[in-house]
Amino acid sequence: MRLPRAVYGLYERRLAASLPRSSVPRHVGVILDGNRRWAASFGEPASTGHQRGADKIFELLTWSEDVGVEVVTLWMLSTDNLKREHDELTELVRIITDAVCDLAATGRWRIQVMGDLDLLPPEAAQKLRGAQQRTAAVRGLHVNVAIGYGGRHEIVDAVRSLLREHVERGTTLEQLADSFDVDHITANLYTRGQPDPDLVIRTSGEQRLGGFLLWQSAHSEFYFCEAYWPDFRRVDFLRALRSYAERERRLGR
């Protein structure tokens, strides 16, 4: 049952006011799931759901800014998504590219593209790199857009980058093996220099990571929301933050 608008607004304000600022996550990862199922529930094509989902991103970033989140990572296109039918994939890549360029055009957020852009059409990859370059000096909320992204792919890229670096230094394989530790991987991830995600949210009721930030999420808290991504509301976001604030984070200790 939906609450009357006035009652809903009061509940949302009270929920926001109850959140302890000291417990706001620095880094929130979001798996934007359920666009196609949302569209199907209305008898609409998948592209309608993808567009509605893209339109929701601006709201999420505004909510994140309002509560003091420093980094948001959005999983917008996985490496598995690249196997979809050509027509849907072409439209999806266009919608994602336009959405990222629109976010960059606001000048509010620093955009960082993470993933293998070589898997995308050259024109889309060029536009995404341009959006990143145009916001490189922007301070404030840091927004990672994971496009052509897979967690295993990222770790492979990190190891490949590490090996190339040490080849250039003249390090032998034996020397590298003797000194190799987790920090070597961390320093070569797409998110290097950023805090690991404190909270990962997945919409649409699915309760799995699906390869999202596999390395970085070792100590993350997870929140699974039943709403499809296009229906995700500010109150859903605040509930995720409340759930996070109520947990005792042991971080493996």
UniProtKB/TrEMBL annotation:
InterPro entries in the cross-refs: UPP_synth-like, UPP_synth-like_sf
Residues at which Mg(2+) binds: 33, 221
Active site: 33, 81 (proton acceptor)
UniProt KW keywords: Magnesium, Metal-binding, Transferase
Single GO BP term: polyprenol biosynthetic process
Coiled-coil segments on the chain, per record: none
Pfam families: Prenyltransf
Cofactor remark from the record: Binds 2 magnesium ions per subunit.
EC code(s) of this entry: 2.5.1.-
Annotated GO MF terms: ditrans,polycis-polyprenyl diphosphate synthase [(2E,6E)-farnesyl diphosphate specific] activity; magnesium ion binding; Z-farnesyl diphosphate synthase activity
Cofactor: Mg(2+)
Binding site for substrate: 34-38, 50, 78-80, 84, 202
GO cellular-component term (any): plasma membrane
Top-rank lineage group of the source organism: Bacteria
Functional summary from the UniProt entry: Catalyzes the condensation of isopentenyl diphosphate (IPP) with allylic pyrophosphates generating different type of terpenoids.
Subunit organization: Homodimer.
Family to which the UniProt record says this protein belongs: Belongs to the UPP synthase family. Z-FPP synthase subfamily.
Protein name: Isoprenyl transferase
Organism listed in the record: Cellulomonas aerilata
